[in-house]
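Contributing new records

If you add data, match the layout below exactly. Sequence lines come first and carry their own label; structure lines follow with theirs. Keep one chain per record. Anything else will be rejected by the validation script.
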Amino acid sequence: MKATFLLDNLLGKLSFLNQAVSARTQLPALSGFLLEAEKGKLKITATDLEIGISISIPASVEEEGKAVVPARPFSELLATLSEEKITVEKKEKNISVSGKKTKASLLSLDETDFPNILDEKGEKTITIKKDSVVRDFSKVAFAAAQDSGRPAFSGILLKAEKEGILMVATDSHRLSKKISSGARSAKPFDKPILIPSRTIKTLLVNKSDEDVDLCVSEKNNQVIFYQGDTVLAGRLIDAEYPEFEKIIPTDSSTRTEFDRQEMQNALKTAEIFARDNANIVRLSIRKTSVSVFGKSSSLGENEIQVSAKTTGEENEIAFNGRYLLDLLQNIDEETMVFEMTGPLNPGVFKIAGDNSFIHLIMPIRVKEEELRG
């Protein structure tokens, strides 16, 4: 194997590739990149058996072939180079990396141990416009459970609707629902698909200007994302998704509108004081403001007023402040709406003027005297 490529064509993709590199020591090949020199291109693949990533860059191929290079030192080496062109070549048990002024050699790993991440291309199911990938998936992915103890809660549900593709994620304490008009079904859905949130979050790391084609391989129970010269593959989750529609409130007694950035700043301050108190942050909703409270027995307490326009009843409610910040940090729009029916019912967050998004957070039960300060 021997191929020459422009360094700049690879450097910007290394952080994306490294998302799939495994730290497992029982299979050393998984800690490496599979380099495959083919006609006119160099393909680089990484996998940890849960997800797999493959990218292709233009290359002058002198000798076709493949090799597995240790991913971390290879990435670190390339990041230090200022060469315009780099040549990689397999020489027996070594892989040489060279430029006009640079020569380095890395021990190769056994390519026979490197698994095939893609047995079949799969059938195209959804096309997602490039500007919708980050904008829409970011609004739901953070709400999925971090652990896989309950598989369904660690996934993002995708379902075809008339208005676009419905995306839902929940960890049972919060729920995000978004209908993406920038995502369209390429073929009728027989049933919803459930994708691990890690796979979606990895997709968001890829900085690409290309639309995304989502394909499903029923044979391998696999989801594959094609975006320009990159491929991301992961397993589908085979689990029953909760009937989330039943917990979404249909009315409210309190509705308040506020500036997202102002509320976010207030919550960051409240979190300093709430950190030692299970992150409990209290909201006191009045006609022209929302007071944000944080309190700690060992530190003290604070109150910040956020300008708001409230209709309906004035109210009080408490939340995990981290959940509130997670929501606001994943929203770009300026004006948010909060609705509630009481301190023990889910709080509903929306984007002003946008009916395609809704976020629920379960409140924290606190004593009435604490709730009212």
